[in-house]
Every structure is written in C-alpha cells, then in structure tokens.
Design a protein that fits this description.
The chain is elongated, with a radius of gyration of 29 Å. The chain has 17 helices and 20 strands. It has two domains: 147 residues, Nucleic acid-binding proteins (OB fold (Dihydrolipoamide Acetyltransferase, E2P), Beta Barrel), CATH 2.40.50; 258 residues, BirA Bifunctional Protein, domain 2, CATH 3.30.930.10. It has an eight-stranded mixed beta sheet, sandwiched between helices. Strands 1-2-3-5-4 form a five-stranded mixed β-barrel.
C-alpha cells in the first residue's frame, strides 16, 4: 500500500537531524491535540469486540456486520475525501476504509494527521473491496495512543541483531514471524503441562532464593538478604526442593520455572533460563526416557502439526523411536576406544594422550570417558538419541548401576549435537549421597567452583527415606528453539540478558 508523502519520508533512511525533526513534529501534534481537548492518553478504554483474524477466518459470518477493532496503524493512503489504512492487532492485520462522509469532516481531518505507529480504535462494517480484500468500512475512528517514535519499515534501520533483542517491543511490532515464535513458546509450555497433568503430576512452586545452591554443577548468582543478614543464592536448578516433596509423600511433581547460572552467554546459553523438572516415585531412568520421548513427540505434533521438522539443516523425525546408546557404546562407535577395556585412571590418561584429548590432574577415568564423549560423539548425534549410563564422577545425585557401580543410571537426550534433557534414576541412599557430596567438596577445594555444596537439610530429608525415583530436567528455551527453528537462544527468550549500552 502506498503511503502519503510524510509516511514515505519516515520509511527512508534518515539522518539524526531529520529524525530529531520528525520526533519533534510528533510531539507537536500531540500537544495540539491536547490543547484541543483531544488528548488520547485520557481515554481509558475502548470497546474492542473483534480481531482481524476473526474476520478473515469467518468472512461469511461477519459480512455486513458492525465490528469494533483496535490496533496499531501500520500503513495509510490518503486520497482526498477517502483513505485506506492498515491496522495491526493481536492476531494480524486488516485493511480499513475511512471516508470523510462517514466519520465527519473534523474526525477525517484528524485522521489524515495520524502517524504510522499510532494506536487507533475503529468501528465499522465488514465488507470486501472491488479487489476482493476483506476490509472494515469505518464509521468511527478514535486515536487511542500517540506514537512518539518512528517505526522502522521492515526493520529498515533496525537490522542490528543486538538492537532487535534490546528493543523486542519493536521487533514484535515489525516482524510477524517473531511474534509467531513466542506464540509457539506459549503453546510448548501449555502442552507440557497438558501431558504431565494427564499423567497425574502435580505442578508446584519452590523458592528461587536459596541458602545453598544445589542440583547442578554451575556458578550461582549471589545476593544478600538484609533482614536475615545472610548471603543467598539464585537457584541453579529445581532438583533438591522437588526431591524433598517426594520424601514428603507427593509421588509425581513438576515445576516450570526460572533458574540462574552465572556463566557465559552464547547462542545456547543465557544467564537466566526456563527449566522444567519432574520427579516420579517408583520408577527409574527408563521410565524417564519414555516420558521424555512422549513430551518431545507430543509437543512437536501439537505445536507444528507434525513430528517431522527441520533444524540446523537436518531433517528430523520425532515420531520415530529415539535411539538408546550407553556412553561407552557411543564413545566406542565414534572414537574406536572401548572404555570397558580400560582398567583404571592411569590407563585412561594414557589413551587420552594418544588421542589428543586434554584432561586435568583431578580427572579420573570416568571424567576422561566424558571428555572423549564431548570430543568425538556429541557432534554426531543428529537424530534424537538417548545417551545412557554416565560415570559416577560427573553424576553426584544419580543412583549407581547395580552391575557396574562406576557408572550411574543417567541419560541425556541429544538432537543435532545438542543436549535437550537430563534424567536420572535418583540416588536415594543417604550414605552414598553423603560420600558423593564429600567428593564434590574435595573438588571445590581443588579449584572446581562449579562442584556441589553440601546441603545438610537435604541430607536429613534423604535419611527419612526417599522411594526409588526417576527425575528429568528439560531446558524449555532449547526445546522452543528446536520447535521453531531458532538459531540462537536469544530468539526464543522475549527479553534476553544484555549488557547495558553505557557499560
């Protein structure tokens, strides 16, 4: 749709001086309206009863009927006594026909002065133009909010990716596909809840501020509680409070909540992110695999209408059974090294040197197995694959395998070389748990600042007795990335963490 001269000017690249002048003009327009007793900011409500897609999806039902819509003015073509404009609302956009004869000379004169970006309310009759475009024939146009900034046209002037994240509100206005990502994000979380609720899981909330951070290997954010005069930590995981609830008698619990890790920022990591953790009594990590598979398959089908999707240049089918490999099997397949044949840490270090895998003095055989996995395996796991049986050294909260106590009943889900879920047969032996925590404490003393702290209250809870339990954690942001094709985690978070411009 062509614009009038002023609107066209606003869509071109403009200098800072020109921009300043345009912004000045908008403020002057607002001041004039206020002086005339037409201050839009004094309007407290408008009786919107219909949205654009309601009309477009059911034109036969709306044709000839009066509707009241509200939204942002995105385009305007003034033609003497009549004009066309495009209004964008929650669902999409719709064309409106505005005539001086229908809304009155004064209102029409005001309308001609409206700017792209202004919020308007329009009452009118649904019809089709001669060109067949579904439209609203206005009999009332009301300015509901004056836009004092200049909207970019198709992101002209807002191409900088970082600026898009900083000004997500503009991103959402101008880029319909961005809004679609976050509509899908909401649908992902809703479907997770639907599936878990149908299985008898109870959704709960646990503290985000903790005296001891636990449940993961990560650096916490530290704050200070003034009234108690103690340091507290933003939670790094949901695990330990949820396990306390299993001890207390809730057999199936889950939480979807924000967690915080004071670590780096890249395309897969944000300092705060959304995590879903669930715990189910009387099952193990195989039960967790079944639930994980069901969640990813069900969410994909619900959100995308199919289990076949593309991501990172790969065609994926979440409808097929996910492959299940032990870490040892996977390392053998992709590196040729069979850790079942390696007797001890000394031999593991020797093999690592031969294969060019860097390790530290504190690393034992299990740590080196994991280093081999990271070096040779992860990048090759394209289709959904469960990697099972992790070394005990890197799994301080996981039950040991009865037949191989150096390994644990743990799995992670990998898709396109990325981890999407982490699950355990949860450790419920308080004596073993104490020994694992002691080992973690020694790791901290040796310089590992991500090692777990000892949570004495959790130890007390364990001593009361926890039933055999399966636990699962899924990063919601990564799941949304997968379901929407987003390249960066910032594309899946409405307001990603950004360094202030003045820092």
């Amino acid at each position: 749709m062509a614009e009038n001269t002023k609107d066209m000017a606003e869509e071109k690249e403009i200098s800072k001086e020109e921009l300043g002048e345009l912004l000045k003009i908008r403020r002057e327009k607002l001041e004039k309206l206020q002086n005339e007793g037409k201050d839009p900011f004094k309007i407290v409500k408008y009786p919107v009863d219909t949205h654009s897609m309601d009309i477009k999806n059911d034109y036969e039902g709306y044709e000839g009927k009066e509707v009241v819509i509200g939204g942002r003015l995105m385009a305007k073509r003034v033609m003497g006594k009549a004009s066309f404009c495009n209004v964008q609302d929650r669902d999409g956009n719709i064309q409106c026909y505005v005539s001086r004869n229908d809304i009155g000379e004064e209102s029409y004169a005001d309308f001609k002065k409206y700017d792209i970006g202004d919020i308007v309310g329009i009452k009118g009759i649904v019809f089709k133009t001669k060109m067949g475009e579904i439209s609203v024939h206005a009999n009332e146009v009301v300015l509901l909010s004056k836009s004092l900034q200049i909207l970019p046209e198709k992101f002209h002037g807002l191409k900088d990716q970082e600026l898009r994240y900083r000004q997500r509100y503009v991103d959402l206005i101008v880029n319909p596909e961005v809004k679609e990502v976050f509509l899908k994000r909401s649908a992902v979380i809703k479907e997770i809840r639907n599936i878990l609720d149908s299985k008898g899981f109870l959704e709960v909330e646990t503290p985000t501020l903790q005296t001891i951070p636990g449940g993961a290997a990560a650096r916490p954010f530290i704050t200070h509680h003034n009234a108690l005069d103690i340091d507290m930590y933003c939670r790094i995981a949901l695990e330990l409070p949820l396990k306390r609830l299993i001890v207390g008698g809730f057999e199936r619990v889950y939480e979807i909540g924000r967690v915080y890790r004071n670590e780096g920022i890249d395309i897969r990591h944000n300092p705060e992110f959304t995590l879903m953790e669930l715990y189910q009594a009387f099952t193990d990590y195989h039960g967790m695999m079944d639930i994980t598979e069901e969640l990813f398959r069900g969410v994909c089908q619900k959100v995308n209408g199919t289990t076949k999707i593309s991501y990172g240049g790969y065609d994926l089918d979440l409808g097929q059974p996910f492959e299940r490999l032990t870490m040892t099997e996977a390392v053998k397949r992709f590196s040729g090294v069979d850790f079942d044949e390696i007797k001890d840490t000394e031999e593991a270090r020797k093999i690592a040197k031969e294969k060019g895998v860097a390790y530290e003095e504190r690393h034992a055989k299990g740590d080196i197995l994991n280093l081999f996995f990271e070096e040779f395996v992860e990048k090759n796991l394209i289709q959904p694959t469960f990697i099972m049986d992790y070394p005990v050294e890197i799994s301080p909260l996981t039950k040991r395998k009865p037949d191989k106590p150096e390994l644990t009943e743990r799995f992670e889900l990998f898709i396109v070389g990325r981890e999407y879920g982490n699950a355990y047969s949860e450790l419920n032996d308080p004596i073993d748990q104490r020994a694992r925590f002691d080992h973690q404490a020694k790791m901290r003393e040796m310089g590992d600042d991500e090692a777990n702290l000892i949570d004495e209250d959790f130890m007390t809870a364990m001593e009361y007795g926890m039933p055999p339990t399966g636990g699962l954690g899924i990063g919601i942001d990564r799941m949304v990335m997968l379901m929407t094709g987003a390249v960066s985690i910032r594309d899946a978070i409405l307001f990603p963490t950004m360094k202030p411009l003045d820092k």
